[in-house]
Design a protein that fits this description.
The chain is mainly α and 226 residues long. It is 55% helix and 10% strand.
Length: 226
């Protein structure tokens, strides 16, 4: 497919291959330049043609070819975007068949995604710390003031982590370790096929193998084990 001449037939082959493959397929490195030349030639034929019936056929052919080229581009565009997201999340997508202009597009997408994720998670972390300090300062000094029972209960509630997951409250039959998350962790799929997005301060119950991984990375500390 790399050196094939651009024709309606070859464009249809490229379109089908791109549609049926989850990976970016190999095409001529000058594909976009070549299709531009091909369309210009087709346009010139249309202008030079004198017979109305022939003009109509050429116009229809030109429209169909433009649709095929756009469809090829959109399939590749979607795969490039998914590949950039995958790499930003620590994946290793197959990008060896990217064309030069597509590689520039991929690199810029990846760079922007990484910057945005870093900005969001960094700002989120900064918002948590002042809230924790305010909570600790709001605790009453038992040696200098008397508190009502209800006030003590409210104070205890404030000491809970700001971010909790659905698994934060252990069930009676749950034997998984209970962890406190020490840093923001990007989304990942666990060994139990559940998707996790964890933030600093979260308390969560996790399967032992996943808990061990976070503990080894010092991204969490164990609160207790049932």
């Amino acid at each position: 497919m790399d050196d094939e001449e651009i024709t309606y037939k070859t464009l249809r082959k490229i379109q089908q291959a791109e549609k049926n493959s989850p990976q970016i397929t190999q095409i001529n490195k000058e594909f976009y330049d070549n299709v531009t030349v091909f369309l210009n030639q087709l346009e010139k034929r249309l202008v030079d043609e004198k017979k109305p019936q022939k003009q109509m056929l050429l116009a229809e052919e030109s429209q169909n070819i433009e649709k095929i080229i756009r469809n090829i581009y959109e399939h590749r565009e979607k795969k490039i975007m998914l590949a950039a997201i995958s790499k930003a999340r620590g994946g290793n997508p197959g990008i060896k068949y990217l064309l030069p202009e597509e590689k520039m597009f991929f690199d810029e997408l990846y760079h922007n995604i990484v910057l945005f994720r870093k900005k969001i998670f960094t700002n989120h972390s900064k918002e948590i710390e002042p809230d924790k300090e305010a909570t600790s300062q709001s605790k009453p000094n038992r040696s200098t003031s008397k508190t009502e029972p209800n006030a003590e209960k409210n104070t205890e509630k404030q000491d809970d982590p700001i971010h909790k997951t659905k698994n934060a409250k252990p069930q009676k039959d749950n034997t998984n370790p209970i962890l406190r998350i020490l840093e923001n962790i990007p989304s990942f799929v666990g060994t139990n096929n559940q998707t996790y997005t964890l933030y600093k301060g979260d308390v969560i119950s996790m399967p032992p193998d996943m808990a061990k991984m976070l503990l080894n990375k010092k991204a969490a500390k164990k609160i207790r084990t049932d």
